[in-house]
């Protein structure tokens, strides 16, 4: 199969061109241990993704490479732009993307096409989809499930499910722990009493627990009085 081209260039040629106006050193500093980072600015990458989504995106996805971190990110951005009537076919594309995630930013720059509207139209199905990733033993697959659950399911109907899953996840990956802590801080902002009850009795490791408290304290949406209570709940280093 011929390599996909857009703007008269291959994807790698497009990316290398965009990288000329990027910030490689800064981006590398945000992704310790991740190889082959070009440092392309996110808005520029999103514009290319939107352009591909309006073009022959199937040919692009069939030939897409994963050498550069931004090549992985671009696949997610293209899938984010695809309006498909077949939910299962769409989730199949998302699943393929999830397996190539290799950094927090590749994970966190993705969202479903239509965002909350898509989730609301397929609430139970998408939740099962996310549960499948939260059951994984791979760091970025779990993070994907957690970040998407945080983005779309911290509501009256699913808050208990979210808290149960945050308590159930057990993985030593730094980016899993940080995602769980981040999600719990959002849970607290939206459902303070339920989350407080959970924080008083949970199975979180000390790092994740204390990081969740820290993120709650850093929130502008938490009162000074509540922050003092949260601060007093910190676990001491053993």
UniProtKB/TrEMBL annotation:
InterPro entries attached to this UniProt entry: ARM-type_fold, DNA_alkylation
Domain of life of the source: Bacteria
Protein name: DNA alkylation repair protein
Signal sequence extent: none
Protein species of origin: Phocaeicola sartorii
Pfam families attached to this UniProt entry: DNA_alkylation
């Amino acid at each position: 199969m011929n390599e996909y081209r857009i703007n008269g260039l291959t994807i790698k040629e497009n990316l290398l061109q965009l990288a000329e106006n990027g910030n490689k050193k800064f981006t590398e500093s945000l992704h310790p241990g991740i190889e082959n980072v070009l440092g392309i600015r996110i808005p520029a990458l999103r514009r290319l993704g939107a352009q591909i989504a309006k073009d022959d995106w199937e040919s692009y996805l069939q030939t897409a490479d994963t050498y550069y971190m931004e090549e992985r990110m671009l696949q997610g951005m293209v899938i984010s732009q695809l309006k498909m009537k077949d939910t299962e076919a769409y989730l199949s594309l998302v699943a393929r993307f999830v397996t190539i995630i290799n950094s927090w930013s590749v994970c966190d720059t993705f969202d479903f096409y239509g965002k909350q509207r898509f989730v609301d139209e397929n609430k139970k199905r998408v939740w099962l989809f996310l549960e499948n990733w939260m059951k994984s033993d791979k760091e970025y697959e779990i993070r994907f499930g957690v970040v998407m659950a945080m983005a779309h399911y911290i509501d009256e109907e699913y808050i208990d499910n979210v808290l149960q899953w945050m308590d159930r996840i057990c993985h030593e990956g730094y980016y899993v722990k940080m995602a769980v802590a981040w999600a719990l801080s959002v849970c607290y902002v939206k459902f303070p009493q339920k989350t407080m009850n959970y924080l008083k009795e949970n199975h979180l490791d000390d790092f994740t627990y204390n990081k969740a408290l820290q993120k709650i304290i850093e929130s502008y949406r938490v009162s000074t009085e509540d922050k003092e209570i949260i601060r007093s709940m910190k676990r001491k280093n053993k």
